Amino acid sequence: MRTTQPSSSRQLHLEGAFAAALAVADPKKIVPEYLAKIFPAGNLPQGRCLVVGAGKASAAMASALEAYAKTHWPETPIDGLVITRYGHASPTQRITIVEAGHPVPDQAGMDGAAEVLRLVNTLQSGDTLIALVSGGGSSLLTLPQRGITIDDMRKTTEALLNCGAPIEEMNIVRKHLSAILGGNLARVALSRGARVEALLISDVTGDHPADIASGPCAPDYSSYSDALQIFTKYHLDERYLPSSVLSHLRKGLAGEIPETLKQSEIDHHHFSLRNHVIATAHRSLQAAANYCKGHGYTPIILGDTITGEAKDVGLVHAGIARELAHHASWGKPPVALISGGECTVTLPSGTQGRGGRCSEFLLSLYAATSDLKTLSAIAADTDGIDGSEKNAGAWFTPELRLLAMEKNLRASQFQQSHDCYGFFAELNALVHTGPTLTNVNDFRMILIDQT
């Protein structure tokens, strides 16, 4: 993590807790641990071992798998392809890495996804498919169903982003437009007699395999009806969506197109399919809590499923912090409030905005806690990219408030234009990690010191 301000002890604690949260989700550490559990001695991958996947952490996962296999599976033939976001590649020798667009899909991602599906179609009975899946995989594995173009998918994604739809709803739509997501990738491998083992790094609330990167290897609980209801909820119709997308979903609702993979199909055919969630947001929050405890703070984990408009979540956190600072008997300072989950930012029409949901949350918290003189906070995306810019998030301390006053910076002015990036950039208070090569959702922490 890189900042340009002289480090105070509070700032060091904020950075240290975030670093601890990232470390516990590092693919170099967790992938070998789980491969040893999934493939113990005597139960190594059989036949050809095909490795495919997608997500912001998938390339790092592939590197870790190759290193492990070189030592523990020296006789196993391994090949494959994984797709990651631009700038998130990691060195491999036998597994091809493709970089593509995220969150809006592009042609590179579509070509890579088509090659993933082609490779899975070459599996034979007794082979092993290992899928490496992490957040971001939904858009990176974009391969539309027949009759839907990449431009149609791009327009649909942009429409959902612009109306503030949470990632869970976006993924329900994606599943039902995709030839790969919603368990369709596993369906192909299983139909060819292969064993399927999926390793998942979760960036979604609840950590359900069907929700992580829209579940390419997981049975799906959603339906075509759910996807259409999401469009209705946000008043998205022919004015905003391609006709091909609406036509496809309506055909699915009428039973003219097969549904996504369901658990009943797996049970009926006795398929060998397992999904392993190897890293989660809550484990990262717990690692941060352990760090704080070791530095004299009482940690309070508010949860890893906190969602909503970022500015509103900031106000709620401000209220909790004020209660702890002035009144509460159940958590007296020094205390660390820690939370995760994925917020949203809805931009008014005509507003460009700079920053992302973490910085927007933090600016809202900052503006609402001017009376709390001992409060410090950090909010950052664990993948290293928060929204429209190249920072992971931002931070502030009491010392930074004094600097803002000297510079005559008013948070309200930046809030009106949704320029949270600009505010914290003026204070040199941005968090820069570069691509972390993991992704377990957003990290938020508030430190309340004694007066």
Describe the fold and architecture:
By secondary structure, the protein is α/β, with parallel strands linked by helices. It has two domains: about 10-20 and about 280-450, glycerate kinase, domain 1 (3-Layer(aba) Sandwich), CATH 3.40.1480; about 25-280, Rossmann fold, CATH 3.40.50.10180. About 40% of the residues lie in helices and about 15% in strands. It is built from 17 helices and 14 strands. α3 (about 60-70) links the parallel β1 and β2 (about 80-85). α7 (about 165-175) packs across α9 (about 225-235), α13 packs across α14 and α14 packs across α17 (about 420-425). The two termini are about 30 Å apart.
Key traits:
about 450 residues; alpha/beta; glycerate kinase, domain 1; Rossmann fold; 2 domains
